[in-house]
Amino acid sequence: MKTYDIIIVGAGPGGLTAGIYAGRQGTKTLILDKGLAGGIGREVPEMENYPGFDMISGLELVEKIKEQCIKYVELHETEKVEDIIKSTDKFMVKTNKETYYGKTVILATGSSHKHLGIPGEEEYLGKGVSYCATCDGLFFKDKDVIIVGGGNSALQEALFLENIGCKVTIIHRRNQLRGQQYLQKNIKEKNIKIIYNTIVEKIKGKTFVESVILKNIETNNCIELKTSGVFISIGYIPHNKLAKKLNVKLNENGEIITDKHQKTNVKNVYSAGDICGGLRQWIVACGEGAIAATSAYIDIQQSD
User: Fold this and answer.
1) The domain containing residue 148 runs over which residues?
2) Which residues contact 165 (CB under 8 A, 6 or more apart)?
3) Do 219 and 126 share a structural domain?
4) 204: pLDDT confidence band, cut at 50, 70 and 90?
5) Could you give phi then psi for residue 294, rounded to 5 degrees?
6) Tens-digit pLDDT profile for residues 288-304
7) Is residue 259 helix, strand or coil?
């Protein structure tokens, strides 16, 4: 029987930081992730607001955190947790490869990209439609592309695409951007075009994306805009399936509710990172991961 003090589900910034704190406190800790460490954080092209770095990519930062983390804990990438069953004194964690037992569980399961749900979106995925500018941006150098969205991620991706030589237009359904002011300032300085009060109705093309149909939500007028790429950045869907299995309380957005100690309503279950909602920033996820691991450590010590 493979038994651990703490099992962390998810190896994003929050999960990895929880691992660092858990391991340094002397607990036997396992981190499981269905993909690679970092999750969608690996896609962040450039960050200017993570302490200690004037500029760093999500991929580079996550590799640094991962390197530090595995000094203290076991990290199993590409191992999907399929079920968690709570008994009186432990949790049984079943993956697609093995079964583990833990005294406590930290859910750092993160979120995934929201889709527009419009004609052409799935058809042209990988053929001009993308959710990751870092992954696919270089294919569109010197070409016209659009970014759909107006939050931090959308603005970061717009700046990245402009910097590598794309001709960028932002499509936003509201009358003003929602991203942080420094990002909006950079967008303005780069003279990146923004079309407000507009949604994408349809993505068109033959083999690859060639244009989009845009609809102004105030006038209902539609226009066709030529573009080679559609980068979608409109928010995230919380990965709460495991939380639901454990009867963890969620808010109206499906995000996990925690107290200031990152404890959920279920004893010995904690949570950290984007799955908790709030300010979706790396530094916040890391802080929550540190708190969750410390809370789990204290509760383990008190119960032993």
Assistant:
1) 115-232
2) 141, 142
3) yes
4) very high
5) -65, -40
6) 999 999 999 999 999 87
7) coil
